[in-house]
Amino acid sequence: MKRSGSAAVIVLVVIVALLLIGGVCYYFYHGSYPSPSQQISITSVNPSSGPIGTQITITGTGLSHVPLAYPGGGKYGEGIWLTNDKVWSYLAGPLDTKIVDDNTVVAKIGSEACPAPQSACSSNFSSELAPGTYSLYVATAEGSIVSNKIVFTVR
């Protein structure tokens, strides 16, 4: 019996250590821990329209707090989104998005569209992002929109 108690303590210590390491990695990757109370404002998107694959520059304030989901950390749903209130497309992946500074983020318009906001898309539910007018905004993993919305047109 005493051994199983020791094993449980070791497992608990390992879990706590992994959680702490994950938090430290998140902090160093993002520069801060994002929260809905941080002010993020989008003032422009350049260009304001383009096809899938277009690289865009987003300018504003507080953009260094944009949460980017990345392999092994973060929560799906946090980051930069496009929506027309029928489909949602996620832009803030680590391979296609770069936080330049507090006023600039460079991202790429992706091709996947999801049927629900801040949800994981599976191949069964995703579709190609269709041409049209979309709102671009920043959200937390809990679905809280933490920025204003600005228009981007997919051609």
Q: Your description of this structure?
A:
With 155 residues, the protein is an alpha+beta fold. The chain folds into two domains: 1-30; 35-154, Sandwich (Immunoglobulin-like), CATH 2.60.40.10. 19% of the residues lie in helices and 32% in strands. It is built from one helix and eleven strands; from the N terminus they run αβββββββββββ. It is elongated and about 60 Å long. Residues 24-34 and 70-74 have low confidence and may be disordered.
Percent helix = 10-25%
Whole-number tally of structural domains: 2
CATH topology of the largest domain: Immunoglobulin-like
**Helical run tally:** 1
Mean pLDDT: 74
Runs in which pLDDT lies below 50 for 5 or more consecutive residues are 24-34, 70-74
What's the arrangement of strands in the largest beta sheet? 2-11-10-4-5
- End-to-end Cα distance, whole Å, is 66 Å
Q: What CATH architecture of the largest domain would you give? A: Sandwich
User: What's the CATH H-level superfamily name of the largest domain?
Assistant: Immunoglobulins
The CATH class of the largest domain is Mainly Beta
Q: Major β-sheet, in short?
A: 5 strands, mixed
Name the beta content range: 25-35%
Q: How many runs of DSSP E, i.e. beta strands?
A: 11
